[in-house]
Amino acid sequence: MLKVNNIEVVYAKVIPVLRGVSLEVGDGKIVSLLGANGAGKSTTLKAISGLLSVELGQVTHGNIEFNGQRVDKMGPQEIAHLGIRQVIEGRRLYGHLTVEDNLMMGAYLNNDRGNVRKRFQQVYDYFPGLAARRKGVSGYLSGGEQQMLVIGRSLMAHPRLIMLDEPSLGLAPLVVKDIFGIVKKINEEEKISILLVEQNAKIALSMSDYAYVMENGRIVLDGPAEKIGENEDVREFYLGLSGVGKRKSYRDVKHYRRRKRWLG
Q1: CA-to-CA distance for 223 and 209, rounded, in angstroms?
Q2: 196: number of Cβ within 10 Å
Q3: CATH 2.40.160.40 describes domain 2-83+159-252
Q4: pLDDT in tens, 126-138
């Protein structure tokens, strides 16, 4: 469904951020993009969604295809019409509007009122807590509820691909578990493809079909998620486990040993 082909991204025409990044997301699959802060993960998502243009960034080499159609020269609205939705890091919502108004904003491309009403009910079925707070001001929701709301908003226009940027950020472990369980359910029931950027590598790998590891603007490792999770370097650096299963601090890991770019 999605193919990112050897792209390079530059900010303000002088600052290189991504170098030769290639990745794919299959139809109905969940793919994780892992890496430390500053590795270029969010920039990759913005290159796909077209949001680079509002941050003085641009794809200067390579191309991005969605269902065989090149999108790297399109604007964000054109890309949204194709069925790509990005849930931006930090739970960006309209805090002065109600839960229901926020969801309605996600349906702005949908002109079928009957379909919109049906979609409201589907979102509330996935997130029952939002149904109970539908008339409440969204700015007063808990962090977990706000994350559910921005995911629900992305569902309102029947997307074909949802890109989630750090959905667990700042949330309690039990809330994270609930949210990822719902994301997995959405993927299974609606066959929506998911591209997931996530610092919690353990939970990301547990629900993904395939994974990429990014470092300093490049993809340094990729393979089936199960194989990536078994890799000694990934276990040590991203999961905090040493070879004998002991917890290890990130500060104790001196460097990331690149052994094999693809694990078959």
Answers
A1: 9
A2: 27
A3: no
A4: 999 999 988 999 8
